[in-house]
Structure formats: C-alpha cells, structure tokens
Write a structure and sequence with these properties.
The protein has 164 residues and is α/β, with parallel strands linked by helices. It has a single domain, classed as Response regulator (Rossmann fold). Helices cover 35% and strands 13% of the residues. The chain has four helices and four strands; from the N terminus they run E-H-E-H-E-E-H-H. The protein has a four-stranded parallel sheet with strand order 2-1-3-4.
C-alpha cells in the first residue's frame, strides 16, 4: 500500500447520489493522493439533478461523473482498487453488491436521499445531510497515516470511520 495514488471505489445500488457525491468529494479533497470512482449494482443511468446542483454549489467538478455499473470495475482492464467502500444503507433494506478481489473494504452506510420523494426541499435536505456525512468520513479517511498503519490497523480505522 505504499504506492500512490490509491484507487478507491464507492459502491451503492443506483450510483446516482451517495456514491457519486463520494467520488466527487474524494477526487477533489484527495488532491492527487487518491483516484476515486463510483458504481452501482443496479445503476440508475443518470445522476440525481439535485445532487449535481449541490456539487456545483460546492464548486466540485462534475463533468466526468456518470452513473455506471460496478461490472466496469470487474473487467480485466479496469484499474486495480486499493479500497472499496459500500455506502448503501442497510436500514432501508438495500442489497449492497459484493466486490470480488483483495482491496481493503469497509461499509460506510448512508441513508439514501433518493428515497425522499415528498418534495424537492426535503430531498435537498437529505442530499445535504448525506453530503455532510460523506465529507466528514472522507476527511477522516484522507488524514489517515497510511504509511504507518499495518493492514489490520488500517481496516480497524476504516470500519470506525464507517460508524462515525
């Protein structure tokens, strides 16, 4: 794990909100130390427009973002992942995809803002809450002393971040 940048894959079901926000956040805040990707087990095929609105308000690059299947990252020519984080929420009964291979994994469950359909205002609030939670977790993640942690300690830290 001494090489850089680290490749990080964020997984959820639809790849239209949570994992997209995580990809944008880490690519921006990781400042070249990380290369983030996102995907879904059942991609929606589009990004929630209110998510794009928030990312644009936060001045995060969005041009390269797209909803895609996690199968793209299982292909032989796909980038090798160092970390895979599932951001789907178990409480909502969502089935998270299982990533094959040897990357370090952790579950960072976030409530799905796409489940809020009562109004745009309520969905914006849910998206903002998910964004804040992801931002906090990603901030903790990028501040880890990767070169000083053995695999077991690193896994412990990643799991703790997911519970934060």
């Amino acid at each position: 794990m001494e090489h850089t940048p680290f490749n990080v894959l964020f997984l959820c079901t639809g790849n239209s909100a949570r994992s997209i926000m995580a990809e944008a956040l880490l690519n921006y805040t990781g400042k070249g130390k990380f290369h983030a990707f996102s995907a879904g087990s059942q991609p929606a095929g589009h990004i929630n427009p209110l998510v794009l609105e928030l990312l644009n308000q936060q001045k995060l690059p969005t041009a390269a973002l797209r909803s895609k299947s996690w199968d793209e990252f299982a292909a032989s020519d796909a980038p090798k992942m160092d970390f895979v984080f599932t951001v789907c929420d178990n409480a909502a009964g969502e089935v998270c995809p299982v990533w094959p291979g040897q990357p370090m994994t952790a579950h960072w469950g976030i409530d799905d803002p796409n489940r809020i359909t009562s109004s745009d205002t309520a969905q914006r609030e849910a998206i903002s809450a998910a964004y804040r939670q992801l931002s906090r977790r990603i901030s903790l993640f990028i501040s880890l002393p990767f070169d000083k942690l053995d695999a077991m300690s690193l896994k412990h830290h990643l799991d703790n971040i997911g519970r934060s």
